[in-house]
Specification:
Blueprint: H1 3-15, H2 19-25, E1 40-46, H3 53-69, E2 73-74, E3 77-85, H4 90-102, E4 107-110, H5 114-127, E5 131-133, E6 147-149, H6 154-168, E7 175-180, H7 185-196, E8 208-210, H8 222-228, E9 235-238, H9 242-253, E10 260-263, H10 270-275, E11 283-286, H11 295-308, H12 314-333, H13 339-346, E12 352-354, E13 357-361, E14 367-379, E15 382-394
Parallel strand pairs: 1-3, 1-4, 4-5, 5-6, 7-8, 7-9, 9-10, 10-11
Antiparallel strand pairs: 2-3, 11-14, 12-13, 13-14, 14-15
Helix pairs in contact: 1-2, 1-11, 3-12, 4-5, 6-7, 12-13
Keywords: Signal
Domain Leucine-binding protein: 39-381
Signal peptide: 1-24
């Protein structure tokens, strides 16, 4: 069986739940007997507690799903997946990386918090071990050699929505921008202003910055929301995720019934379960929607729902793709890969057949990919992010 046919057979069989046959077939190492390929260690860095834990769980699930489909192998090598808690600071993130490096990992993946990603940059680069980040991606992460990202760059979400809202908002409309005071928010605001129009009077007001806590209370945002709404905006553009997104939207809806726009993290994963009707009508821009109609997504989303009983998120998808690019890169290195060989191979893998659609790494080691507009709508008894249309190709 050819390498491509074997890969497709494994994916389809796994989606149907025929795991026994998958295990018997092995993975994609036809070019060299898999018996000659020794075990490798991959380090997975995610928050294991706090407001971003649900995102970390999705990242773990996405990576593990790829391993399940491929007989727990990457590039033909049996994988030992080592995990570490990134915490919520640069210090805790650095400790997680250093702990995994001491265990001899071939590559690293994961990372949710942008502050953590910035904090571990030098440690990763000096260790010369590739990190395939599957979430955090601040635009300040420039001129890196060993850090790749399968997610996005934060300003891209702002760009995608900026262009869309520029054309949608009435001439007499006004947008209030509300953001947590963290590493990623300036990226989102800059991208939004750049594509909406930096001198457009409809967004001329200063940004309202809120607490950056990932575990807010029931009144954490109340005063900031009141201040942002003082000039009676017709729409709100915001940037929150996880538990913070839930509390922000609940507190915003107590005072504002108008349209809300945001990068898609605002309504991803468990957020919708907690918001219920408060989320209806929110429009977001994201690089993935679980209802995308392509073969790779049908396989991925079906297998994910079967294994985890939930709809996959962009976090899970990006982590699945992180495993996919590692699989291809390690395959290219042969039987005894080193971190440096894997890093060089990552630059040679070309286009990725992903659940989000075809994408490839650009020069800054981030995806060149499509962005989609989604709207929260009712799907039976549950809320769902429904694909509306394609917004832009960025990267």
């Amino acid at each position: 069986m050819s390498q491509m046919n074997r890969r497709r057979a494994l994916q389809l069989l796994a989606a149907l739940g025929t795991t026994g046959f998958v295990a018997a077939c092995g993975s994609d190492g036809d070019a060299e007997p898999t018996a000659d390929r020794g075990p490798i260690k991959i380090g997975l860095i995610t928050p294991q507690a706090g407001g971003f834990k649900s995102i970390g769980d999705d990242i773990t699930n996405g990576f593990q799903l790829f391993l399940d489909i491929h007989d727990q192998r990457l590039g033909g090598h049996p994988v030992e997946l080592l995990t570490a808690d990134e915490g919520d600071t640069a210090k805790t993130g650095k400790a997680a990386v250093e702990g995994l490096l001491k265990q001899g990992v071939l590559a690293l993946t994961g990372v949710v918090n942008s502050a953590v990603m910035v904090g571990i940059r030098d440690t990763v680069e000096q260790a010369r071990v590739p990190l395939i980040g599957s979430n955090a991606s601040p635009s300040s992460l420039q001129s890196v050699f060993y850090i790749w990202r399968t997610s996005y760059v934060l300003d891209e979400a702002g760009k995608a929505l900026g262009r869309y809202l520029r054309d949608q908002l009435p001439a007499n409309g006004r947008v209030a921008i509300i953001m947590p005071e963290n590493v990623g928010s300036p990226d989102v605001v800059r991208g939004f202003r750049q594509y909406f129009g930096t001198t457009d009077p409809r967004i001329s007001d200063p940004v309202t910055y809120t607490s950056a806590t990932s575990n807010p209370g029931k009144t954490t945002y109340a005063s900031d929301i009141t201040r942002a709404l003082a000039k009676k905006p017709t729409a709100v553009f915001c940037f929150f995720a996880g538990a913070a997104a839930v509390e922000f939207i609940k507190q915003l809806r107590e005072k504002f019934a108008g349209p809300i726009y945001a990068p898609g993290f605002l309504t991803e994963g468990t957020v919708l379960e907690n918001l219920k009707d408060n989320a209806l009508g929110i429009q977001t821009a994201l690089n993935y929607s679980a209802d995308l109609n392509n073969t790779s997504n049908r396989v991925f989303a079906s297998a994910y729902r079967k294994k985890y009983q939930v709809t996959p998120t962009t976090y899970a998808m990006a982590s699945y793709d992180a495993a996919q690019v590692l699989d291809q890169a390690i395959q290219l290195t042969g039987g005894k890969p080193t971190p440096q060989q894997v890093n060089l191979a990552l630059g040679k893998i070309g286009q990725i057949d992903s659940p989000r659609g075809i994408w490839q790494f650009n020069q800054p080691r981030t995806p060149q990919q499509k962005w989609y507009l989604r709207e929260v709508q009712r799907d039976g008894q549950v809320m769902s992010n429904v694909l509306i249309n394609e917004l832009a190709t960025l990267g």
